[in-house]
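Standup notes
- DV: blocked on the single-chain target, sequence here:
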Amino acid sequence: MSNFFLECTVCLSGGNRQSSVAPASGNRTWHCYYNSAIKCNDRTLLPVDIRIYSPMNDVVHPDLTMGRVIGRAVKPPDGPMLVDAYVITPFPGDPVSPQYDIHLPQSTTAYVWALGTVMTPLEQMPDGKSRCFNLAVSDFVRDSNKLSTLQ
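- DV (later): unblocked, structure below
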């Protein structure tokens, strides 16, 4: 058993709605896709591709909308992190207004909950205090079970 959950505040862009047909049932399902990035503790940006179930008549959030995202995730060795969101909660306001940023939370910390298999022994981090290890996790993202290795 393995899981990889992510909760983060991101800036949404490139929103578009796409439909897909389930091969077994022939049912059509609609999803909204967004591009974004997560700021890591070392200030690097990790690209993120977000997908969320979206009814056919649902509204696509405009570019630059800030939102809180909670969902299942996978980080392929190359390419962006893939997130199947349970919920995207946009912060209210007009994203193109100069006043929009004033009402946003100052914390952009991403939280990760992962249950997996420890793959390496503990290693000392460069700060001399922290320790880390590699963790193999998998989750059902983008219609299949995918594996990630986290540190």
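- Follow-up: The mean pLDDT is 85.
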